[in-house]
């Protein structure tokens, strides 16, 4: 299950993979978990193929590709597209929902609500819908936020953050996580993990929200702060940033991590999300619990429900968490499911 981003461009199945990835994106947004898993598996399996796969029989012979996906692969090869992506089979409303799902922070519920309320386009939303501040920014900067960010630019954003952070406290560290840490050639956003040896969450958050974030706003690097999502404990900040001299806004996420949790946070923030899901599932099967703070043992569950928090066995050491779970170490570039 290796994923080598550098091989992507000259992969013999790159066009097929590209179309399947669009489908994956669509199903991810509609929260169709089973299809998401099937598509991811198929895409990964295709990436490993040294030859171009053109028929359903060839596709079916690859482990990880089932009957339906094999049919789809043949269709993509024959037509260079998938019917499901064409307007002809989508109702107009489906397409609008898909467009609205691209607005920062909008889930399926919000997107269908807007459609039900009669909005039909982004300019409808902008002109007539009552939008929260982050939603408004999400619509205004729709095209900015939907563009992938070249790796080099992610690095540049990280460097600006690092300079500001270390200008305030030389012991603080900035690590770029997410798809960047997995080695991706382009990223959806800039994920910065911020930590400091010996520091608590409270200390890091105070420095970041009290000093660094305001400083980055006044220097013009940070452009907007976007509302925190519901499941947050004050350990993260979402916003938008732009490099000096540009007007292209990028999504940037800051994750504040106490020293004691850096290993677990690195695993969480490196992902990808499906890899995290499988690691957590494995922990659960072993009577443990893995979350972004640590690995816990002796967790009691009755019918899936946790009865106690368990006992923290590792939070600091990324490698040791793998080892305690019995998973051979996987460098970030190979953490894709
Ligand atoms: N994450 C997760 N589950 C989620 C969302 C995120 O475990 N539902 C973790 C894994 C991700 C990391 O957080 O790798 C960063 O989230 P992003 O949404 O920024 O995703 P990526 O950085 O992996 O991809 P992209 O290039 O699209 O930003
Ligand atoms: Mg990211
Ligand atoms: Mn992110």
Q: Helix/strand/pairing class, anyone?
A: alpha+beta
Q: Estimate the global geometry from the Cα principal axes.
A: globular
Mean of all residue-level pLDDT scores: 90
- Helices and strands, in order, run as HHHHHHHHHEHEHEEHEEEHHEEEEEH
Contiguous runs where pLDDT drops below 50 for at least 5 residues: 1-7
Q: Sketch the major β-sheet.
A: 5 strands, mixed
Helices, by number, come to 15
Q: Beta-strand percentage?
A: 5-15%
Number of strands: 12
Spatial gap, N to C terminus: 8 Å
What's the gyration radius in Å?
22 Å
Helical content (DSSP H or I, runs of 4+) = 40-55%
Q: Strand order, biggest sheet? A: 2-4-7-6-5
- What ligand species are in this complex? 2'-deoxycytidine-5'-triphosphate, magnesium ion, manganese (II) ion
């Amino acid at each position: 299950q290796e994923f080598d981003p550098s091989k992507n461009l000259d992969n013999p199945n790159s066009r097929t993979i590209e179309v399947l990835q669009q489908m994956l994106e669509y199903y991810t947004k509609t929260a169709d978990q089973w299809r998401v898993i099937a598509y991811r598996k198929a895409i990964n399996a295709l990436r490993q193929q040294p030859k171009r796969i053109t028929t359903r029989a060839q596709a079916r012979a690859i482990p990880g590709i089932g009957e339906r996906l094999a049919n789809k692969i043949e269709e993509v090869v024959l037509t260079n597209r998938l019917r499901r992506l064409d307007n002809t089979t989508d109702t107009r409303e489906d397409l609008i929902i898909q467009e609205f799902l691209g607005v920062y922070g909008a889930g399926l519920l919000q997107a269908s609500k807007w459609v039900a309320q009669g909005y039909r386009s982004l300019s409808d939303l902008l002109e007539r819908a009552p939008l929260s501040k982050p939603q408004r920014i999400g619509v205004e900067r729709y095209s900015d936020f939907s563009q992938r960010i070249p790796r080099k630019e992610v690095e540049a954003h990280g460097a600006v953050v690092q300079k500001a952070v270390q200008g305030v406290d030389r012991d603080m560290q900035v690590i770029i996580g997410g798809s960047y840490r997995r080695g991706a050639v382009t990223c959806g956003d800039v994920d910065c993990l911020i930590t400091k040896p010996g520091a608590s969450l409270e200390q890091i958050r105070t420095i970041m929200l009290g000093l660094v974030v305001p400083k980055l706003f006044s220097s013009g690097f940070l452009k907007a702060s976007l509302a925190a999502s519901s499941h947050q404990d004050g350990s993260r900040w979402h916003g938008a940033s732009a490099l000096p001299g540009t007007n292209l806004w990028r999504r940037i996420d800051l994750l504040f991590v106490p020293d004691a949790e850096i290993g677990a946070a690195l695993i969480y923030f490196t992902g990808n999300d499906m890899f995290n899901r499988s690691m957590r599932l494995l922990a659960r099967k072993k009577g443990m619990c893995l979350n972004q703070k640590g690995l816990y043992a002796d967790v009691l569950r009755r019918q899936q429900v946790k009865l106690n928090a368990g006992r923290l066995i590792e939070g600091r050491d990324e490698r040791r968490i793998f080892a305690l779970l019995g998973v051979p170490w996987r460098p970030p570039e190979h953490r894709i499911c």
